[in-house]
Amino acid sequence: MKKTLFAVACGMMPFASHALVQPQGTAYDRHIQTVTYNPDNVVNVNINQGTVTQIQLGKNEVIKGQNAGMGIGDPEAWDIAVRGNNIWLRPKADKPDTNLSFSTNKRTYILRLVTSRYPAYLVKYTYPQDETTKTAKNPLPCRTTGILNTSYYMRGDKMIAPMHVWDDGRFTCMRFEGTNSLPVVYSVSPDKKDAERGIEHITNTHMAEDVMVIHQVSPLYRVRLGDQVLDIKTDKLRYAGYNYTGTTNNLVRKVDNGN
């Protein structure tokens, strides 16, 4: 009877949760990864001997200040370099797996460094609170209708590919890396003479920070930069109604008629 009661009592005890987070690879390369910052999570970073892994923190975040610092479980097994908001890690030992913790002028980070056949080359942190504040001040374009289509796939030269593509049934948005040259985007309509190539039409666009806003939607776009070509296609297009605000971010535009 005592054994039975003990087993039931143990079964009612709460279990400690294990908050280990794995960064996610981008759609273009699994070695380039992102992870959302959470002060209560340990981030698992895949590493490998002979490979440098870069950790990229938020803008203006540095390991400097009265309470800043860094500690690693086995310092003899690692080469570490820090500059600005970037940290470079290179394992030297055969068995370098360990933990890394550091505090910046803004946050504290806990990482678990684990040997893997598929090491990360770059792990970029994102910060949901910062993104929420930024969105509140500057609403994202292509969000005018309540429709949000992010189901796009690409074929061609990924060097000119946007990081994200979405539409709201009226406008299409493509977010490009800020350091890259901007390509020209064409919409493509069917061509009976050349079904594979189609007919290319230049699109009207404007820039909203790092987002190219295309003043239409299309099931197929063709992106060109020099000799590089990339097709961007969606099968989930839904057309929205008339845009009464006349804007791309659902804000009312005031027009001064001179009165």
Describe this structure in words.
The structure is a single chain. The protein has 2 domains: 20-131, Immunoglobulin-like (Sandwich); 138-233, Sandwich (Immunoglobulin-like). The protein has 2 helices and 20 strands. 8% of the residues lie in helices and 37% in strands. The protein has a 6-stranded mixed beta sheet with strand order 2-3-11-5-8-7. A 5-stranded mixed beta sheet has the order 1-4-10-9-6, with no helix packed on it. Strands 12-20-19-15-16 form a 5-stranded antiparallel beta sheet, with no helix packed on it. The model is unreliable at 1-18 and 251-257 (pLDDT under 50). The chain has 259 residues and is mainly beta.
Task: Offer a concise description of the structure.
The chain is 8% helix and 37% strand.
According to CATH, the fold-level topology of the largest domain is: Immunoglobulin-like
Termini, distance in Å? 91 Å
Low-confidence stretches: 1-18, 251-257
- How many helices does DSSP assign? 2
Rg value: 24 Å
Question: Fraction of residues in helices?
Answer: under 10%
Mean of residue pLDDT?
A: 83
CATH class of the largest domain: Mainly Beta
Question: What structural category do the secondary elements indicate?
Answer: mainly beta
Instruction: Give the second-level CATH assignment, the architecture of the largest domain.
Output: Sandwich
The strands making up the biggest β-sheet line up spatially as: 2-3-11-5-8-7
The gross shape turns out to be: elongated
Largest sheet: 6 strands, mixed
Secondary structure tally: strands:
20
Residue fraction in strands: 35-45%
Number of domains: 2
Order of helices and strands: HEEEEEEEEEEEHEEEEEEEEE
